[in-house]
Amino acid sequence: MEHFLDTFFKPAIMASTWPAIAKGMLVTIEIAILVVITGLALGLFLALLRTLRYRLLDLLIILFVDFFRALPPLVAVLLIYFGLPNIGINLPSFAVLWLVLSLVLAAFAEEIFWAGILSVRRGQWEAARSTGLGAGQTLAFVVLPQAIRLAVPPLTNRTIAIIKNTALGSVIGVPEIINNATTAVSFLGNATPLVMGALAYLILFAPIIAFGAWIERRFAWRRS
Predict the structure, then answer these.
(1) Distance of alpha carbon 203 from alpha carbon 15, whole angstroms
(2) Band of the pLDDT at 128, cuts 50, 70, 90?
(3) Which residues have a Cβ under 8 Å from the Cβ of 116 and sit 6 or more positions away?
(4) Short-list 117, 107, 122, CA closest to 70
(5) What is the C-alpha to C-alpha distance for residues 109 and 159, in angstroms, rounded to an integer?
(6) What's the average model confidence in pLDDT over 75-96?
(7) Which residues contact 99 (CB under 8 A, 6 or more apart)?
(8) Which pLDDT score, from 0 to 100, does residue 138 have?
């Protein structure tokens, strides 16, 4: 038992590495916030573009969505980080992680928003148009509020799952939680920093998961 505690819960190492773990938590929070904002905004924008019903545009959006839903985020991170410099484009590791996770979230969000838009009965479109509302007004004031409410529960789970992939930043040197923890392990030869990293993720994401569950209950949709 003493050996176990010395390997995974050594107080002296906890005290010395906590500042690095705390800095990693701040970086993780920054990336997560940026990914949520840009990913959801891009996903909603693409779903709105599909309402225009242009065949070529629809095809391009579907190809984008299928590509980033099928491609593992780690593969996308490595392709962009190591591939773009070969054509003269150099992005910081932070920007690469943000870009990849935003595109992945946008791909899933687009499908969820689009499914929400399609689930609104056609009669509501027609009723709104019969009152004199234009197509854009009908979408903005009648259809979209219902579609977003329908999309909230699945979108919440998907968003949480994707932002936890911030840990992938460790493979390209983003100074997030896991990167700082593994660096400390390599210098100290002790697993305590990894345990601290795991605790840091629990501290960050346990409230987010609880909030996501509350959101799902709050926006649960019941058709009459």
Answers:
(1) 17
(2) confident
(3) 146, 147, 148, 149, 150, 151
(4) 107
(5) 8
(6) 93
(7) 80, 91
(8) 87
- Higher-confidence residue: 29 or 133? 29
Residue 223 has pLDDT above 50, yes or no: no
Mean of all residue pLDDT scores within the chain: 89
Is the domain defined by 2-218 classed in CATH 1.10.3720.10?
Answer: yes
Q: Identify the pLDDT of residue 222.
A: 52
Question: In the block, which residue shows the tokens 């838009």?
Answer: 117
- Both ends of the chain: CA-CA distance in Å? 59
Give the per-residue pLDDT at 114: 95
Contact 87, 21 (CB under 8 A): no
Distance (Å, whole) CA 109 – CA 122: 22
| CA dist 176 → 18, 78, 199, 204 (Å) | 13, 17, 14, 12
User: How far is residue 220 from each of residues 17, 59, 181, 197, measured CA to CA in Å?
Assistant: 43, 32, 39, 34
Whole-angstrom Cα distance, residue 89 to residue 87? 6
Contact 105, 159 (CB under 8 A): yes
Predicted confidence at residue 205, as pLDDT, reads 85
